[in-house]
UDP-glucose 6-dehydrogenase
Amino acid sequence: MIISKITCIGAGYVGGPTMSVVAQQNPDIQITIVDVNAARIAAWNGEDLDQLPIYEPGLKEVVAEARGRNLFFSTDVDKAIDEADMIFISVNTPTKTYGKGKGQAADLKFIELCARQIASVAKTDKIVVEKSTLPVRTAEALKSILDNTGNGVNFHILSNPEFLAEGTAIQDLQNPDRVLIGGENPEAIEALVKVYEAWIPRERIITTNLWSSELSKLVANAFLAQRVSSINSISELCEVTGADVNEVAHAIGMDSRIGSKFLKASVGFGGSCFQKDILNLVYIARSYNLHAVADYWEQVILMNDHQKQRFAEKIIQTLYNTVNGKQITFLGWAFKKDTNDTRESAAIYVADYLLNEEASIVVYDPKVSAEQVYKDLDSLGTRSPEDNRRLVTVVNNPYAACRETHAIAVLTEWDEFKGYDWQKIKEDMKRPSFVFDGRKILDRQSLEALGFKYYAIGE
Ligand code: UDX
Ligand code: ADP
């Protein structure tokens, strides 16, 4: 099977960067990324590469190289399906907000819509690649829809989960630890291996059966999130015993069996994957009556919720048990640095908690818009949109954000926060001047020397 045209359905955080790099590395393959969201496609096609719909370091350079050569963005989904030899499905699979499995199972309606559309349009054989993270055995459902509603052509389903992390997506794609391809048809698998072999050594491309591939993605995210919850649980213990969580993390991380990565204590993990994938794992385990397994993984989420709440409570307690009418400045709203993605960001939940106590919050994030901040708060449904706009202000200048404020809370580990003129911030703040560092990025000694009351997770 020779692949000359690839279509990717879904131009989001996964589809956009992934297919841009595939196009960059395979100039002979024509790649079209399609999306039903016309505004998003227009932004991908925009002249100004600083206004791409996704902020990722290095992305604009890749798009500049490949766009118009062999990389195209379009809203014409049918045409792109019709032309393609291989179709990646990279649409969103949020946690269900209704019905059976509400709050836990993945909502597969977007995937199913894609499958039905592919089936109705395709007039030649296609390889269909699952790129979105999906519950185990989704490929089976996909195959059933394709085979039963299609025009009698052959579909080969492959699972090819994406392991990129936002903020480092381009380097993760250029130089991945491994690429995982699950499937049944050896020729279809080989066709996809060839696409990746353009830049990735063969020994890093693993092939497995479909179910192992689908499950491995959920398990990889569960293990990573578990490490964060584990170190966060220890951060609370450190705060009462006098140990420093960074020192503990360093000491245990030097054991090569444990390893040093993903041991950074924080206000809690966020992002579109960790919580969703663990909830999904829990849901699958429960659906097979494996309650001990489900309970075990659920604890990772419970610890994460606890960490976010604990951080908010620490702020309230330190501010003399009331934040009513007090201004609290949030530095950072994104779920991690170097992305404009805010899905499941700890900042949203910490803000919600403080707003329930009638705090007024000022937000500064280098890449997140005011519109997004309000959208995130409104989607919680805790209070009216008017109240969210009354209590929360979003500004685009960090010094203005900190002026006359009672306390600063660091929610995202953006590098620029470290380089601020903290003396100037101190002069313009209310006294005592509190800093709550949910990412442990600021320097205690110099802040204390300036007269700040400094609190950091795990110290
Ligand atoms: C994750 C997986 O890393 C990636 O392989 C998968 O494809 C998608 O999910 P992502 O969510 O983009 O990627 O970012 P990641 O770097 O994993 O961080 C997730 C969250 O954990 C962030 O909120 C981050 O701040 C937090 N985190 C991470 C910590 O709090 N401490 C750490 O040590 C590491
Ligand atoms: P992810 O982080 O998984 O990439 P995003 O929400 O960023 O998730 O991107 C998913 C994209 O998929 C969205 O831009 C959405 O408009 C698009 N999408 C969802 N369903 C369809 C569909 N049936 N056809 C085309 N695009 C779709």
The chain has a mean pLDDT of 96. Residues 135 and 284 are 8 Å apart (CA to CA).
